[in-house]
């Protein structure tokens, strides 16, 4: 499937707020094609995010500062979390598998 650069695609049951998307179902996914060295996500509420790059679990060489173990990012409060960090800019399809109803996503930022 063709997806547009830096535009995110959601699966699961989401509620559209003025400045965020809220996960209503227990699980959901966000898919994003990016071209950057760094990818950050601005979120609120508690959830466990499992990160996949090009259909494989996130490799340590791409893992951002906030990845806790393997390919998992635990979010718990309103913050900007660093998911991807690499020396050079590259294009990848990132998929985030989310566990945690009430999770809110505000935006992605790219570096």
Largest sheet: 9 strands, antiparallel
DSSP helix fraction: under 10%
User: How many strands in all?
Assistant: 9
Q: What's the total helix number?
A: 0
What integer is the average pLDDT? 96
Secondary structural class: mainly beta
Which term fits the overall shape? globular
Q: What ranges have pLDDT less than 50 throughout 5 or more consecutive residues?
A: none
Spatial gap, N to C terminus: 25 Å
String of helices and strands: EEEEEEEEE
Fraction in beta strands: over 45%
What is the gyration radius calculated from CA atoms? 13 Å
As an assembly, this protein is: single chain
Secondary-structure topology with pairs:
Blueprint: E1 8-11, E2 14-16, E3 21-23, E4 27-44, E5 47-53, E6 56-57, E7 72-75, E8 79-99, E9 104-110
Antiparallel strand pairs: 1-4, 2-3, 3-9, 4-8, 4-9, 5-6, 5-7, 5-8
């Amino acid at each position: 499937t063709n997806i547009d650069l830096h535009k995110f695609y959601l699966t699961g049951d989401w509620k559209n707020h003025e400045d965020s998307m809220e996960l209503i179902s227990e699980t959901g996914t966000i898919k994003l094609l990016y071209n950057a060295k760094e990818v950050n996500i601005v979120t609120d509420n508690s959830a466990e995010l499992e990160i996949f790059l090009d259909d494989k679990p996130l490799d340590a060489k791409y893992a951002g500062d906030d990845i806790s173990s393997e390919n998992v990012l635990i979010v718990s409060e309103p913050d900007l979390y660093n998911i991807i960090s690499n020396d050079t800019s590259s294009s990848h399809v990132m998929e985030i598998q989310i566990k945690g109803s009430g999770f809110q996503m505000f935006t992605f930022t790219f570096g």
